[in-house]
Amino acid sequence: MSALDQMPKHDFTVIGQQIITSLRKAAADIITEANNLQASVEVLAEGVAAQMDEHAKLLNEMDGRIRAFGADVVEAHKKLLNGGKHENPTP
Fold first, then answer.
1. Which class for 78: exposed (0-12), middle (13-18), buried (19 or more C-beta within 10 A)?
2. What distance in Å separates the CA atoms of residue 49 and residue 53, rounded to the nearest whole number?
3. Separation between Cα atoms, residue 27 and residue 21, nearest integer Å
4. What would you report as the CA-atom Rg of the chain, rounded to the nearest whole angstrom?
5. DSSP state at residue 5
6. What is residue 86's predicted lDDT score, i.e. its pLDDT?
7. Strand, helix or coil at 83?
8. DSSP 17
9. CA triplet 29, 22, 17: central angle to 5 degrees?
10. Are 14 and 22 a contacting pair, CB within 8 Å?
11. d(Cα 19, Cα 8) in Å, to the nearest integer?
12. CA dihedral of residues 11, 16, 22, 24 (deg, nearest 10)
């Protein structure tokens, strides 16, 4: 036995040990909660990234359709103005 084991225990040391145990448990609980929160945030972030990719794809498709429509309009105007004889007819 060590000299500390032979010394009488005081009330404050028992309370101190209870506080230490409670602090360690609280820290472990906080770490567990943080890990769970991190996992749910990762799932949310992956969902947001997938939605952004889908919206970017849709915008790119729409942009292509708008450009094609614009080209068709320009071509129609060229055919209509002066029978398509001039790119930029003079007034």
1. middle
2. 6
3. 10
4. 37
5. H
6. 59
7. helix
8. H
9. 150
10. no
11. 20
12. -150
Alpha-carbon span 48 to 43, nearest angstrom: 9
68: enclosing H helix or E strand: helix 11-80
Q: Are 31 and 23 in contact (CB under 8 A)?
A: no
pLDDT in tens, 14-59: 899 999 999 999 999 999 999 999 999 999 999 999 999 999 999 9
Say if residue 60's pLDDT is above 90. yes
The C-alpha atoms of residue 8 and residue 38 are separated, in whole angstroms, by 46
Q: Do the beta carbons of residue 71 and residue 63 sit within 8 Å?
A: no
Distances (CA, A) of 26 to 14, 31, 38, 90: 18, 9, 18, 83
C-alpha span between 45 and 43 (Å, rounded)? 5
